[in-house]
């Protein structure tokens, strides 16, 4: 490809001796020597800070993929922070990390669920739209616990995994 170039990215780590004293630094190749989570955070950091600085929307599929749950939480909190998000940037993301429902302190209108029907079509709805006995879910509910218990739907149909494995092994 004309005009294309390859960039080697290096990270620098402290090097310690047997007595836990810093004795120097060592370089790591970002792509081959750092974790998948470090690479994911590096990859989204540019677009994330661009949007936080200039406003706009950042869409990330499976934000939690390869990230520690506390890193995922930290990223989402940047977008809910008045200090770091002065331009009303928005983060739209898909995740399977239910911890965010517990620790995230999101409003009910910020939480959406996607559920597939029996035909494979997806339906998306906000938690704020969900009604129980004709009433909106209270904001002090345990959203994570309720979700895992299936109260809001959007739970995958897993079926009997042992039957699936047996069928696969018989092929």
Automatic annotation (TrEMBL):
Signal peptide: none annotated. Residues 33-101 form the ATPase AAA-type core domain. Pfam families: AAA_21. This is AAA family ATPase. Coiled coil: none annotated. One of its GO terms (molecular function) is ATP hydrolysis activity.
């Amino acid at each position: 490809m004309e005009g294309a170039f390859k960039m080697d990215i290096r990270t620098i780590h402290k090097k310690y001796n047997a007595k836990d004293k810093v004795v120097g630094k060592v370089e790591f190749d970002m792509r081959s020597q750092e974790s998948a989570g470090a690479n994911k955070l590096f990859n989204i950091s540019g677009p994330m800070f661009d949007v936080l600085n200039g406003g706009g929307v950042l869409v990330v599929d499976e934000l939690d993929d390869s990230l520690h749950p506390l890193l995922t939480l930290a990223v989402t909190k940047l977008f809910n922070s008045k200090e770091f998000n002065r331009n009303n940037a928005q983060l739209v993301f898909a995740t399977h990390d239910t911890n965010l429902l517990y620790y995230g302190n999101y409003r009910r209108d910020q939480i959406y669920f996607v559920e597939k029907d029996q035909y494979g079509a997806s339906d998306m709805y906000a938690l704020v739209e969900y009604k129980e006995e004709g009433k909106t879910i209270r904001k002090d509910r345990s959203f994570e616990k309720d979700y895992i218990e299936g109260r809001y739907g959007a739970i995958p149909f897993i079926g009997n995994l042992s039957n699936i494995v047996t069928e696969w092994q018989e092929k």
